[in-house]
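User: Okay, second chain of the day. Same drill as before: sequence in, structure tokens out.
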Amino acid sequence: MDLTILWFWIVAGLFVGYFVLDGFDFGVGMALPFLGKDDVDRRVMINTIGPVWDLNETWLIVAGACLFAAFPEWYATLFSGFYLALLLILLALIARGVSFEYRHQRPDSRWKAWFDGMIVVGSAVPALLWGVAFANIVQGVALDAHHNYTGTLFDLLNPYALLGGLTTLLLFFTHGVVFVSLKTEGDIRERARRLASRSGVIAIVVAAAFLLWTGIAHFSVGFTILALIAAVALVLSWVANLRGAEGWSFLFMALTIAFAVIALFANLFPNVMPATDPANSLTIRNASSTPYTLTVMSWTALVFLPLVVLYQGWTYWIFRKRLSRASIPSDVAHSAAG
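Assistant: Same drill. Structure tokens below.
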């Protein structure tokens, strides 16, 4: 296989892993005000992702590193043109990570409320802006002959891109709520199932609108097939949640996000950064590294990527147990109740 094509799909696979795994992290964070009746509930929710959230974010680091090494022109254009949007995502991720570590350092309720708010914002901002960014990439942006972005941040906030951002936000929110129902027991589990049923309906409508708009504006057979698979998986996830099958619901939500991301990459191919003027578009050919670089990267990926996947799978297996309010130390529960 042509190494440029191989690495295009490896990068796509890394973003699939990131959005599927960090997606439910974002959803859990955004759901804190909706499911957390008190601090104990919020502690239970945060503990469901506590052992894995930072490991999930490493997929973004690896994806960015591979993008830089395999497609330096794509990396340069993306990170310079979308600088403010990506900076906001970075700041939100930092705020969220800091809040996970610091919210429990003091028993004061205002202290915890402040960091809980940062978790919500730090989860919602990336969930929205990643959708905005990828929708703009699919739609095409203003690039000059040197592949420099010539638009502004407000140009990126167009109706199509905002609908893409709303789609990812709702999908991640529902993904996270389903994960809470999968990882908890008792009253919070039931409340999570009911919330997933309501948010799932909204996600289905918004996602259908976005995929339909994309299909009409950028039709391709591959995109249409993959988008239909994503749509069917989303409906099946909602049905499974109604039946109380949290495991199946979570699996179908993961497949929804995975096939939606693959559909967007399939719609891009062979471009990596379409321009409003097609002559200025970046493709897998004019954006890639040398064959020697791609060869070295391929052998490295062959050795280390399976190890990363195995280690992460082992981590999820170790922390597979459901959590409840009884899982929170009694002194924490007592102080929250008081």
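DSSP finds 14 helices and two strands in the chain.

User: Thanks, on to the next one.
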